[in-house]
């Protein structure tokens, strides 16, 4: 069995914000949806052709269930398209790309969108010792 060729096309990067800057109230899932929409546009790709979406996100607290699914739907992928969120600390986005590539190499799918999304300003702020004064 030959290994399918993996092609990365239409890479997209969101703006890099500053702490407490203009993106401070923009959820990671919204940023992810922007990336999905722009990827579809740049690649001139029919959303129905995407067979899975895999995104990494380290700080998922406060993002609700399966942030990748939210980004997929917000980015225009059909409701039938599965989405998986990866949490591998600093390597989540890279692991997402590797995981999507593995699905292609295994012959399970032919087309995926993969990457990462994060907004550290939106991460919950905890003060564990605060309750004791």
Explain what you see.
The protein is α/β, with parallel strands linked by helices. The protein has helices at 28-43, 67-74, 92-105; strands at 52-56, 83-86, 112-116. The chain has a three-stranded parallel β-sheet with strand order 2-1-3, with helices on both faces. Strand 1, helix 2 (67-74) and strand 2 (83-86) form a beta-alpha-beta unit. The radius of gyration is 16 Å and the shape is elongated.
Concise synopsis of the structure shown:
By secondary structure, this protein is an alpha/beta fold.
Question: Features of this protein?
Answer:
133 residues, Peroxisomal Thiolase, Chain A, domain 1, three-stranded parallel β-sheet, 3 helices, 11% strand
Oligomer status: single chain
Q: Give me the count of strands.
A: 3
CATH superfamily name of the domain at 48-122?
Thiolase/Chalcone synthase
Rg, Å, rounded: 16 Å
| Percent helix | 25-40%
Give the secondary structure arrangement, pairings included.
Blueprint: H1 28-43, E1 52-56, H2 67-74, E2 83-86, H3 92-105, E3 112-116
Parallel strand pairs: 1-2, 1-3
Helix pairs in contact: 1-2
